[in-house]
Write a structure and sequence with these properties.
This protein is mainly alpha-helical. The protein has one domain (3-184). The protein contains eight helices and no strands. Helix 4 packs across helix 5, helix 5 crosses helix 8 (166-184) and helix 6 (139-150) packs across helix 8.
Length: 189
């Protein structure tokens, strides 16, 4: 069986409750998941302490703990993994922001590095909130941004995961980025 077919078969078995299938699946998808985690991590700020392997491990725990895991195919699985990594990165950024806002800590003078880390964490949270607004307007465009930005998927991989054409993903990518920039900069209606 080819590796993609084997992954799809193992995903189906896992969805039916076979925990051994999950154990067999991970070595087959680990490198690709690590690549996605690394791409997601590269897009984050310098102060992000959640390294790619830790991000992958967190995503694995989230996926492994999912009740009734059901994946259509390999690409759908990676798309769900992108969503899990996005949620983890956003939660991590929010916790860093909460710590920077006081939380009972003694106030220290802030140098340029600390300020940059705070601003970049705020940007991750602002992007997440804008993506949630975009989700309400156009869920496919939101998924395209999530898979491309947080998951590092290519245009072709994103098209396959969403079951749409490459042209559609290119158009959604362009429009969604413009929409998000306007929202984040306060120019949205």
């Amino acid at each position: 069986m080819n590796p993609q077919g084997e992954v799809t078969s193992l995903l189906a078995a896992w969805g039916k409750g076979d925990q051994n299938a999950l154990n067999e699946l991970m070595p087959l998808v680990y490198n690709e998941l690590h690549r996605i985690a690394r791409r997601a991590w590269i897009g984050q700020d310098q102060g992000n302490t959640l390294q790619p392997t830790a991000l992958l491990n967190e995503a694995y725990l989230k996926l492994a703990g999912a009740e009734n895991a059901s994946f259509q195919n390999r690409c759908h699985f990676f798309a769900v993994a992108c969503t899990a990594m996005r949620q983890i990165l956003v939660n991590h950024a929010k916790s860093r922001l909460a710590g920077k806002r006081g939380s009972g800590q003694v106030k220290l003078s802030i140098d340029d590095v600390q300020l940059a880390v705070h601003q970049e964490a705020a940007q991750v949270v602002a992007l997440h909130e804008a993506l949630e607004r975009l989700e309400a307007v156009d869920s496919r465009k939101s998924r395209v941004i999530e898979m491309r930005y947080f998951g590092g998927l290519s245009i072709e991989e994103t098209a396959e995961a969403l079951g749409v054409s490459v042209i559609t993903v290119n158009r959604d990518w362009r429009l969604a980025r413009t929409w998000l920039m306007r929202e984040i900069n306060g120019e949205g209606s």
